[in-house]
């Protein structure tokens, strides 16, 4: 196995190691995203609708504007995605108890059930693929869980800051 070396002419973290990691993570995310609904037997959602639905599942009770800001989407795009998600019975709007002018977005029971079906649908093939890897590679992936969770938290924090700047 060849270990990538950072480029000598760039700042730390911008060399080939970063390019290798970002490329692999992007490809892995795309592979999982593409196959998950089919594996779970659920009609796939376009990327924007999936992002909005996942955000509502993770943070129920947000307003349309809050979802738009946190995902970095135009409010019109968020509204269009929510309209489709509502038509599919995946997201409901509830009045804010403190301000009736504001509606809060909540996932429906159907969204929760489909989310669990997708989680189960993609977990099986990933578990099978991990089991087929050499023990050393499976152990390396297991050891990387904390670092991957930290990367996820950092990316989520960046999407919630103006311009997507790294949170410090």
From TrEMBL:
Q: Which residues form a coiled coil?
A: none
Instruction: Name the CDD domains for this protein.
Output: HTH_ARSR
Outline the extent of the HTH marR-type domain.
Answer: 18-150
For this protein, the record's PANTHER family field holds: REGULATORY PROTEIN MARR, TRANSCRIPTIONAL REGULATOR, MARR FAMILY
Which named protein is this? Answer: MarR family transcriptional regulator
Gene3D superfamilies tied to this protein: Winged helix-like DNA-binding domain superfamily/Winged helix DNA-binding domain (1.10.10.10)
PROSITE patterns (UniProt xref): HTH_MARR_2
Kindly name one Pfam family recorded for this protein.
Answer: MarR_2
Q: Which InterPro entries match?
A: ArsR-like_HTH, HTH_MarR-typ, MarR/SlyA-like, WH-like_DNA-bd_sf, WH_DNA-bd_sf
